[in-house]
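hey m, so remember when u said the tokens were messed up on ur end? i reran from scratch. heres the input so u can diff it against urs
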Amino acid sequence: MDKQEIIRWLKCEDEAELEQLWQKADQIRERHVGKSVHLRGLLEISNICARDCHYCGIRTGNDGLERYRMPEDEIVACAHEGKDYRYGTVVLQAGEDYGITREWMAALIRRIKKETGLAVTLSLGERSDEDLVAWKEAGADRYLLRFETSNRELYDRIHPPLKGTHVDRQALLLRLREIGYEIGSGVMIGIPGQTYDDLAEDILTFSRLDLDMIGVGPYIPHHDTPLGTDDEALKAPEGEQVPNTEAMTYKVIALARIACPDANIPSTTALATLNTATGRELGLSRGANIVMPNLTPRKYRAMYEIYPAKACIDETAADCRACMQRRIISIGRDVGAGRGDSPNRSKEKAA
């Protein structure tokens, strides 16, 4: 696909045409990554963050948020719970929390690997090369780092730099691959100021980076952020501003699958937040093959509020597991076994 074809699909409102897009994405998904839906147990281990991103509810400037960092034993207990539920992966996610030190995280990774054998995915923001190498050597398998938008001017507008740094996240993703990680990235859909051309470039960037995992979700305004209180002036001209809708999210999932047929693509919690009844199922039927049930203890979930009204914050980990399995079976798919490694990397290793 070229950029103009992607833009045409992003702007398409014809239901019959879109049904062709859904079917094509679903067929490519089944051919390249199979029928199984793999489960990744998500653990939100800290809501402390040094960054002040203008859309994020856990930004450092949000003084009204109670902060937490889970202790090691509690994290490991949750990982064991994930193993009991037959998840293949535990995802350790946090804000950019520099209280999570290189040594502490390396020891935690080694312990999880030794005691559970699960694949370990990290989503800890921009960290030093020394940290990233140490965590890979400790046994981490994957790293998730969203580049959020390929439009650098838009990115800088909503991501104030930390300590004068000016990190190129796409370059950092390539460095993560050099270190040996499977790499995952993605974008927000409908950021104020994001145009259709920007979003089409994002999808082309997924392909250029040859991502192992692609996570996309709608921009959902948070009332305790600069964007959440005043974003009208930042929007692109009428007709060019990408809407932050459920429908647009499905289009990006489908187009990402077509552009990157071997990638793992989750049907996200943000989709379930927009459409509690069938959001995840529709994502899975339009190109996705991953879901991420939450392992975070209930006492922390409401405090990890990147955006408001997040789905599933009142459920237990057992509730999430049962709900996900039921939803997967309801659409004629099965729950995947094992780690669910990226077909991209499997082919690379075989070669």
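this time it looks ok to me. The mean pLDDT is 94. if urs says something different then somethings off w ur setup not the seq
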